[in-house]
Amino acid sequence: MAKPPSLEPSGDEQALLAAVIAHPDEDTPRLMYADWLDENADALPTRDPKEMRLRAEFIRAQIEAARLPPNDPGAKALRDRIAELEMLAHEAVGVELVFSHSPVER
User: Fold this and answer.
1) Mind giving me the DSSP string for 43-62?
2) I want to staple 72 with a disulfide (CB 3.0 to 4.6 A). Which of 52, 68, 98, 100 is the partner?
3) Which residues contact 31 (CB under 8 A, 6 or more apart)?
């Protein structure tokens, strides 16, 4: 009997998530993870490509919003998009996004 596909993160994804956790104040590991999500969205049969792309956009939007001054009109637009992405992910696939904390203040 064939073994069912694993729902566990791949070794690459585990390594990227470990880097994110090990360096929470650095953007590079999170951006690398967002890139990985986009690049692998269609390659993992046990994962929803739409959810993976939403998660990648969410990560990038959080990082970009954190880089802007709070009163910047672009920051407000990004915060609105972040809230929209959270809602879309929950409605579309019934999940909470992994990095659902507020953008890091710089």
Assistant:
1) T-TTS-HHHHHHHHHHHHHH
2) 68
3) 59, 60, 63
CB-based contacts of 13: which residues, under 8 Å, 6+ apart?
A: 33, 36, 40
Domain boundaries, the chain: 12-93
Distance CA 43, CA 31 (A): 19
Three-state secondary structure call for residue 86: helix
Whole-angstrom Cα distance, residue 79 to residue 68?
11
Write out pLDDT tens, residues 23-76: 999 999 999 999 999 999 999 888 888 888 999 999 999 999 999 998 898 888
> Do 88 and 96 touch, CB atoms closer than 8 A?
no
